[in-house]
Amino acid sequence: MKKSKWVKASFLAACSVMLMAGCSGKSSGSSDDTIKVGVLASQTGALETYGKQTIQGFELGLEYATDGTNEVDGKKIEFIVEDTETKPDVAVKKATKLLEEDEVDFLVGSSSSGDTLAVLPLAEEYEKIMVVEPAVADSITGENWNKYIFRTGRNSSQDAVAGAASIAEKDVKIATLAQDNAYGREGIEAFKEGAEKLGADIINEQYADPNSTDFTANIQNIIKDKPDYLFIVWAGSNAPWKQLKDMKVEEQGIKISTAAQDINSLKTMDSLMGMSGYSIYYYTLPDNEVNDWLVEKHKEKYDGEVPDLFTAGGMSAAISIVEAIKKTDGDTEAETLIEAMEGMEFETPKGTMKFRPDDHQALQSLYAITLEEEEGVDHPVPVLIRELDMNETEPPVRNK
Hints:
Belongs to the leucine-binding protein family. Residues 1-21 form the signal peptide. By secondary structure, the chain is α/β, with parallel strands linked by helices. Helix content is 36%, strand content 21%. The two termini are 38 Å apart.
């Protein structure tokens, strides 16, 4: 197949900036001794930080899972990164390029649920395994799922179960605030389900424009109903924390609870010091050998920086692929991989994960935490109350 100059240049550029075991001048077609992985990530745009972490984590995951050889069963593993720009149409274009021109054996990604949902049908069309990381929308392993989709990232329902376990109990009154998008609405829907099972009453639901910076009307609406808790589902830098403080929500007896997400988000949460909530990952919370390795290696490689939420996610995705290839003795045929991966358990920075056979969602631990001040740290630090194990955080099966 003749390649354009652009494709050759893109491939050479990828070789120069990414770890690509066995990278050579050939850019198309996996040879018998090479396995290719196409990674879709937001390298530019609002989710650029998420994409950067995922890529770094994926590289470290390959290193860890292959003992530094980037080989499994005698086959080299290389990965090619494409920037989705956090635009679904671009994600489809880049995924098609990876599948048709680079002829990858696996897809991984993406940073955005919208991008990921747009790409899911391609995995089915080309019969290639797609490991979803870190997109969280329930519909990815729910109504839009197909059998080629496996997800190492947690989903909205797992978040919701953890959030509910942190604050919900009989007769507790809870209001919610979320972005008016798939992530926000699915997150609240799942939270309500979990909280109501524990006996709580959801008395007010507020949804705001994802790009809004003024939440006055939403907050006033919540205050008038006098809930015991305000539970918030939010992703991005325009979070409402400062305005909640300015409007003295907690001084009116309303406790705020939310996810302690990545470190950039934590840096905006000074006003939530002392909050009870949950964490998906913070580098001090898991107690296992894989996480110990990740923290040490990441500090060594990135000038003392600690790994973040999506770094651990990228690493988990890479480990799952390597472990699947080991189970199939190097066979990358989709049906063989599906059989091997359904029910597969593998060790990650968050401990053991397991791909549930029903929908290929990775069951995993999350963490009930409080936010506390720590000397020398420029953000509130999640402090462990208790680990919520994979059985406790198991979400409902939502696929067809």
